[in-house]
Amino acid sequence: MKTDNTARNLNYTHERYRKCIHLCSLSIPIVYSMTDKEFALWVLVPLMVIFVGTDLLMKVVPCLRQLVLTVFGSIMRPHELKNEIVLNGASWVLISAVFCVAFLPKIAAVTGFTVLIISDSCAALVGRIYGRHKWFKTKSLEGSTAFVVSGLISVYAIGLLIDAPWAYYVAITPATIVAGFVEAVSGVLKIDDNLSIPISLALMLLLNDVILAQYWGVEILSLMK
């Protein structure tokens, strides 16, 4: 989701279709949680190359552009439809997935990417209907609230599934709230939130892990291997 204003250029039905496709990306953290980094990258890197390559080629190959617009044009953002070198959301999701898997601890990658997929979708859909109180120019407090609430439900569910200790919940709660703030401000800063959301959550989680290790002698980054 870029901005609430941009989102309104799609009607609500098309917005829901777009988010349904977005939710399919949940397969990434689910599969990664059950495999290892090497396998995940073997799958994700070729997919990223294909999607980014297609994204770029459609700007210069008319027949490919027409094919993409015929299939996906109704759910694409206005900036994605322009004949300019601008990557679409699917490309950024895969770039983000490769970065998260390659450079972040597994627990940070899985939780960060899960929040990205679920909470970004909730924020967009709730903000479209109930967004009344604006902040950061293009976002709504209602959408951001939906982001944080759905994000906390998601990461708490992950904690229950992996039988996480109390320290996990202490660390992941503020990290999810920070990710919600970053999602709201990303549009103003012109940063793609497919990158800013999981990275901000991961950085906060890493910071909290350092604090917990120093003062309570507990670590959470090894919860997933």
Defining traits:
single chain; 225 residues; disordered N terminus
What this model shows, in words?
It is a single chain. With 225 residues, the chain is mainly α. β1 and β2 (139-140) form a beta hairpin. The longest helix is centred in the middle third of the chain and has 25 residues, at 106-130. The protein has eleven helices and two strands, in the order ααααααααββααα. It has a two-stranded antiparallel ribbon with strand order 1-2. It has one domain (4-215).
List the helices and strands and how they pair.
Elements: H1 4-7, H2 12-23, H3 27-34, H4 37-57, H5 62-72, H6 78-81, H7 89-103, H8 106-130, E1 134-135, E2 139-140, H9 141-161, H10 166-189, H11 193-215
Antiparallel strand pairs: 1-2
In short:
This protein has helices spanning 4-7, 12-23, 27-34, 37-57, 62-72, 78-81, 89-103, 106-130, 141-161, 166-189, 193-215; strands spanning 134-135, 139-140.
